[in-house]
Design goal:
Helix content: 25-40%
Radius of gyration: 24 Å
Shape: globular
Number of strands: 21
Bound molecules: NADPH dihydro-nicotinamide-adenine-dinucleotide phosphate
CATH superfamily of the largest domain: FAD/NAD(P)-binding domain
CATH topology of the largest domain: FAD/NAD(P)-binding domain
Oligomer: single chain
Strand content: 15-25%
Length: about 600
C-alpha cells in the first residue's frame, strides 16, 4: 500500500473540507458577461472590421461558427460535392476559440496528432506533440483555403435570426450586418465555451487601470505577441491575474517572465501534471502517416479512455495515463474483490495515488514551503480540468511572482486602484481575467440568436426543459438543421475535436443522401428524438463529473444536476459507445430515425 493510501480517510476528509469552503449559493450567477456591462472588453482586438455590402443570396449550406466545427463540416461537405458552403463568424477570421484565445503560452492540451482535424487530408505535420496557438490558427486557415471556405464566408458578422420558411423549405438568415439570405441547410457550431465571463466581484467595474479577459489579450498594452515575443511593456507594470484554470496555467509563466510584479489570485488550485512535450520529427511522422492514420490514432485514444483493454497506447499522455492507472489497479484486484464495490474502491485508490503524486510534484518544484502548500489541489483528478505544464509551478519561484491564495473565497472586491483579498489591498496597473467562459447558459443566451423552426417554434422553447436531439445533431421540428456539439453524443472532453470530426461525417453523409435522392428536407421523428433522450437519461447522471466534487463549471458549480442538465450528458456507453453506435448507424445507410421528404 502506498503512503497516499495510508491516509485515505484523512485525505477524503480534507477533500470535503476544501469543497465546503468553495460552495456558493449563487452558483453560476456569481459571474457576469462582457457584453452589455463591459462592451469595450468584448471588442475584437485582433482584426479591424471591414465595411462590406449586405449579402442577399441563397446558399446550399450556411454554418454559424468558423471554428473547428464549421471548418470540418464545411470541408466534408465540399468533398461531398456541395459547392456553396457559407461560414458565418463574429470573429475576423476562421479559428473559433483559437481565433480569440491568443494569450501568451496558449497551446493545445491534447496531442496535436489527434487534436488538429484533417491532418491527413491537408498533409500537415504538427511541429510538436502539443503545438502553440499560432500553429493551430494557421492550420485553421489552411483548411479554409484548401477547401475554398473563404469564398462565401462572412466574418465580423453576428447572426440575429434563423427562420424556417415552410413554403420554400429553406432557412432565412439575418445578421447584424444587414445580410438577409437563405440556405437549404443550416449548421450551428458555436462551441461549448465561447461567451467570456468575468467574476461578479463587487466593484469589478470600478477599476481605473487596464483590464482585459484572456480571450481578448491586448498586446498593444503588454507588448510581445502570440508567437512568444516577450511582453516588454510589462517590465514596469504591476499585474494581477484572476484565475488559475487551464488558461491561467498557460499564461502565468510568460507573465512571470516579463511583468515587474505579478500577483496570481487563486481560489482553487489546478492539478498540474508533467507536460512531456517534444518536437515531431519528419522521419517519424512519415513512417506513421500511412493511409487512415489519423482515424486510427483518434480511435486508439478513445479505446484507451474506454472500457476495453487496448494493446497499445499511441498517444501516451496524461489523459490515457488516467485510465491506464485505473485499469492496472482493477486488474490487480484479488478475485474475491472483483465486485462492483471492489472496482469502485480500486478506481478511488488509483485517483488518490495520482493526486498525491501531483501534490508531491508541487513540493519538488516550488521552493517556498507556504506557496507550495497553497498550490496543492485537494480533490479527485477529474473534478476539475486536469492541467499539464512544465513551466507553471516554476513560475512561483520567480522573485517578482506572488501567489495570493484566497482559501477558496476568491477576490473580495475591486477598487479603483487594485484588488482586495484576505483583507489586504493590492495596488496594480493591470487586472487580467482568466476567469473562463459560460458553460451552463441556455442555447439562445450562449449563441445570441434562436432558431425558429416549423410552425414558428423556437429552439430555446423546444429545449426549455433540456436538450432534445437525435445523436446530439438533429432536432424534431427543425428540418435541415444540424447542431454540431458534443452533448447527447460522445461528450468527449479530452479531445473535443473528435466529437466534431465524427459529426461532420454524419452531416455530410446525410446531406449527400438528400441531395442525391432529390429530397427537400430531412429531420428526425419525434419518436426517434424521444427514444434518444430516454437512452441518454439511462447514463450515470452528470455531464462530466460529480456534484460531490469541488465546485467548477464541470459540475454546475457544485449545485447538483437538474434533469435538464442531465439531458446534456453523453451516450451511456461513453465516447466509445457513441462512436460505435453512430458508425454502425451510418454504415447501414438506413438513416434510422430520420425522415426524408420531397
Ligand atoms: P476556468 O473556468 O477553468 O477557470 C476560471 C478560473 O477563474 C478558475 O481558477 C476560477 O476559480 C477563477 N475564478 C473565478 N471567479 C473567481 C473569483 N471571484 N476570485 C478568484 N478566482 C476566480 O476557465 P479557463 O479559461 O481556465 O478554462 C476553461 C476551459 O477552456 C478549460 O476547462 C478547457 O476546457 C478550455 N481550455 C483549454 C485549453 C487547451 O486545450 N489548451 C487551454 C485553456 C482552456 P475556481 O476554480 O475556484 O472556480
Amino acid at each position: 500500500m502506498t503512503t497516499a493510501l495510508v491516509g485515505k480517510e484523512a485525505t477524503k476528509r480534507k477533500y470535503a473540507e476544501e469543497r465546503a469552503k468553495r460552495l456558493r449559493a449563487d452558483g453560476n450567477d456569481q459571474y457576469v458577461r462582457l457584453e452589455g456591462k463591459f462592451d469595450d472588453l468584448a471588442i475584437d482586438p485582433h482584426t479591424p472590421i471591414q465595411a462590406r455590402d449586405p449579402v442577399k443570396d441563397h446558399v446550399t449550406f450556411a454554418f454559424v461558427g468558423a471554428g473547428f466545427s464549421g471548418l470540418v463540416v464545411g470541408a466534408r461537405l465540399k468533398e461531398a460535392g456541395i459547392k456553396d458552403v457559407r461560414l458565418i463568424d463574429k470573429g475576423g477570421d476562421v479559428g473559433g476559440t483559437w481565433y480569440w484565445n491568443r494569450y501568451p503560452g496558449a497551446r493545445c492540451d491534447t496531442a496535436a496528432m489527434i487534436y488538429l482535424p484533417l491532418l491527413e487530408e491537408t498533409g500537415y505535420r504538427p511541429t510538436e506533440k502539443y503545438v502553440r496557438g499560432p500553429e493551430i490558427r494557421a492550420h485553421c486557415r489552411r483548411i479554409a483555403t484548401q477547401y475554398g471556405l473563404y469564398e462565401k464566408a462572412l466574418f465580423h458578422t453576428e447572426v440575429k435570426t434563423i427562420e424556417w420558411q415552410e413554403a420554400d423549405r429553406v432557412w432565412r438568415i439575418k445578421t447584424n450586418r444587414g445580410d438577409d439570405f437563405t440556405a437549404k441547410y443550416v449548421g450551428i457550431g458555436t462551441g461549448p465555451l465561447h461567451v467570456a465571463k468575468l467574476p461578479g466581484i463587487p466593484g469589478v467595474e470600478s477599476f481605473k487601470g487596464k483590464t482585459f479577459h484572456t480571450s481578448r489579450w491586448d498586446y498593444d498594452y503588454t507588448g510581445g505577441d502570440a508567437d512568444g515575443a516577450p511582453m516588454e511593456k510589462l517590465s514596469d507594470k504591476r499585474v494581477a491575474i484572476i484565475g488559475t484554470g487551464a488558461t491561467g496555467v498557460q499564461c502565468i509563466p510568460p507573465l512571470a517572465r516579463t511583468a515587474m510584479e505579478l500577483y496570481v489570485f487563486q481560489r482553487t488550485p489546478s492539478s498540474v501534471d508533467e507536460r512531456h512535450n517534444h518536437p515531431i520529427s519528419p522521419d517519424w511522422f512519415t513512417a506513421i502517416a500511412t493511409p487512415g492514420w489519423q482515424k486510427r490514432w483518434m480511435d486508439n485514444f478513445v479505446e484507451n479512455q474506454g472500457r476495453g483493454f487496448p494493446t497499445e497506447d499511441l498517444i501516451d499522455d496524461g489523459w490515457t495515463e488516467i485510465t491506464r492507472r485505473i485499469r492496472e489497479r482493477v486488474l490487480s484486484l484479488p478475485s474475491d474483490q472483483q465486485t462492483p464495490e471492489g472496482m469502485l474502491a480500486a478506481i478511488e485508490d488509483a485517483d488518490l495515488e495520482k493526486m498525491s503524486l501531483i501534490r508531491a510534484r508541487v513540493d519538488s518544484v516550488v521552493e517556498d514551503r507556504d506557496t507550495a502548500e497553497k498550490l496543492k489541489a485537494w480533490y479527485a483528478q477529474l473534478c476539475k480540468r486536469p492541467c499539464f505544464s512544465d513551466d507553471y509551478l516554476p513560475a512561483f519561484n520567480s522573485p517578482n511572482t506572488t501567489l495570493v491564495d484566497t482559501d477558496g473565497k476568491g477576490v473580495e472586491y475591486i477598487t479603483e486602484t487594485g484588488l482586495v483579498a484576505n483583507g489586504k489591498h493590492y495596488e496594480v496597473d493591470c487586472i487580467i481575467y482568466a476567469s473562463g467562459f459560460e458553460f451552463g447558459a441556455n442555447f439562445q443566451l450562449k449563441t445570441g440568436f434562436d432558431l425558429r423552426g416549423r410552425g414558428g417554434k423556437l429552439l430555446s422553447e423546444h429545449w426549455a426543459d433540456g436538450l432534445r436531439t437525435l445523436h446530439g445533431l438533429q432536432v424534431h421540428g427543425f428540418p435541415n438543421a444540424f447542431t454540431v456539439q458534443m452533448n447527447q453524443g460522445a461528450n468527449m472532453v479530452s479531445n473535443i475535436p473528435h466529437n466534431i470530426v465524427d459529426h461532420a461525417i454524419t452531416v455530410a453523409q446525410t446531406v449527400s443522401h438528400a441531395e442525391r435522392e432529390g429530397y427537400a428536407q430531412v429531420e428526425p421523428t419525434a419518436e426517434a428524438e424521444a427514444a434518444w433522450v430516454d437512452l441518454i437519461l439511462t447514463g450515470q447522471g452528470s455531464i462530466i463529473t460529480s456534484s460531490d466534487c469541488t465546485p467548477g463549471f464541470w459540475n454546475n458549480e457544485g449545485q447538483g444536476w437538474s434533469k435538464a442538465f442531465r439531458q446534456a450528458q453523453g451516450h451511456p456507453g461513453g465516447a466509445q459507445g457513441f462512436f460505435e453506435h453512430i458508425e454502425k448507424w451510418r454504415q447501414t445507410g438506413a438513416y434510422e430515425g430520420l425522415v426524408f421528404s420531397r
